[in-house]
Amino acid sequence: MKRVIGQSVLVMLIFILQNTVFAALSFNGVKPNLLLIVTVFFGFAVSTNNGMLTGFFCGLLCDIFFGSYIGVYSFLFMLLGGFGGVMARFFYQDDIVFPYVTVALSDGLFGLACYVFMFLLRGRFDFVTYVSRVILPEILYTLILSLLLIPLLHKFNLFFVKLELKEKESDVSGNT
Amino acid sequence: MSPLVKKKGEKFTIPSKYLLFALTLICVLMIALSLFTGFFDGILNSTAGNMVIPFQRGITYVGSFLNDKADNLKEIETLLEENTALKTQVDELTLEINRLQQDKYELAHLQELFKLDAQYESYEKVGARIVGSESVNWYHSFLIDKGSKDGLKQDMNVIADGGLVGIITEVGPNWSRVTSIISDEINLMGQVLATEDNLIVSGNLVTVKTEGTIDFSQLLDADDQVGPGDKVVTSSISDKYLPGLVIGYIDSMQSDTNNMTKSGTLLPVVDFNHLDEVLVILDLKENYGE
Description:
By secondary structure, chain A is mostly helical. Chain A has helices spanning 2-19, 21-24, 34-45, 48-66, 72-88, 98-119, 127-175. Chain A contains seven helices and no strands.
């Protein structure tokens, strides 16, 4: 329960930061995708389920404020949270590079999905320009920020892991 | 044994594939519901708005406050110099105002004769502060801190710097989303002011990023009178945009392959990178002229 509240507050905070501070810090109109970092992080660091649920709510926030239809971003983010969880099976948890590779990969997938469903279907075929002008800069910016954000998220996660362990211990001692 | 059965002493967890299936179903349901009905408009907009918008307002306020303070310090010196120069100018201008006021009376009189009235000035407007911008990189929309409580409605036009910024596409109780005219999904009818030729203005993600321009197309200009630098305003044909709002100036143009229409790029008058406050026109096009 404490984790649910903690993660909800975190998601809200990141969403607000992304729309205000990082909108002002955008390079050539490109913003980092912080929500994606959070989603993917919980996918590989906690569990696939946690990643999917976190992603779902991150996407829901985007949908409410910026989407044409509720549910599109929720679906995309939810899948990417699950993707983070799936990626964790192929790597060791303490691999240093792995989180960043996953973040970059999933941001690429996110950009690709956005391009295909929102632009390609409207007849914008200039794929290379979209990759070089939107998708790649976003991946780069997101990657740089994930270098800062992921260690912080690790600390955040560790706090709740310890909290849960303590509760479990007190449960066991209470039962016996 | 079914994976859903809870073992003794073990924490209950749902297998990922079931969760994936359930969430997918919810997403599809939500898309369908929001596509065909306005079911979510009230509930989600107000709850999310109440949780997020106050914080965004605070952060944006603090940010712009600090910005202002820094700017103030920088500008004090230049202001002092300017002050003396301006004082002399004031004297000159007061003289000119007197002269112009006489002209204005004459103009008002003539306008009355022609039954014209200055529409642009008579629109009812309300100021709003931008509190957040799009969280993904594919479109250009932003949030403002006024909503249905302040009388804002969907499809109201938004202006700044004397030009058209965009249109309200979503309204919550205390916030609204403005989709700007540079956004890739936006198309609107425009008109070349000088020749009254109609054209279609459409946002373009790529050219906005590279050159700061947006596209126009379908310009019928048989006499070759339109050229770069011509002013483009919103057309009276448009069903959502009020007529006569300045969109921008023609930057470049070429003939289409059909040799009848022309297309090209347009430089918007509004500086979309440095927008802080906007004006929302409270008059809707559907009530226009009533």
